[in-house]
Amino acid sequence: MALTKEVVADKIEVVIGQDEDGNDVTSVQVRTATKVLEDGAVLSQSYHRHVIQSGDDWSSEPSNVQDICNAVFS
């Protein structure tokens, strides 16, 4: 019986909206799933969501999130 914990950015969304002045604002929303597994079977799962905007530091994000941020904000 082996318990393991897995943390992955499992959903990445690019959202384009407008601020109160009518200017376009682009952000990247990242959902992180934390799973506790026993021999590969999920025992528990929880989610956390955070938002990345232009000017934020995304260098500590997983490579797939960094790639999307680089494409969106460059």
Describe this structure in words.
The protein has 74 residues and is mainly β. It has 1 helix and 3 strands. It has a 3-stranded antiparallel beta sheet. The protein is elongated, with a radius of gyration of 16 Å. The mean pLDDT is 95.
Shape: elongated
Strand order of the largest sheet: 1-2-3
Total beta-strand segments: 3
> Helix proportion of residues, in percent?
10-25%
Number of helices: 1
Query: SSE order in H/E notation?
Result: EEEH
Category by helix and strand content: mainly beta
The chain-level mean pLDDT equals 95
Poorly predicted ranges (pLDDT <50, ≥5 residues)?
Answer: none
Report the major sheet. 3 strands, antiparallel
Terminal CA distance reads 46 Å
Which range does the strand content fall in? over 45%
Q: Write down the Rg.
A: 16 Å
Give the gist of this structure.
The protein has one helix and three strands. The chain is mainly β and 74 residues long. The longest helix has 11 residues, at 63-73.
Any chance you could write out the topology, listing elements then pairs?
Elements (H helix, E strand, L loop, with lengths): L2 E16 L5 E15 L2 E13 L9 H11 L1
Protein traits:
single chain, 74 residues, mainly beta, 15% helix, 59% strand, elongated
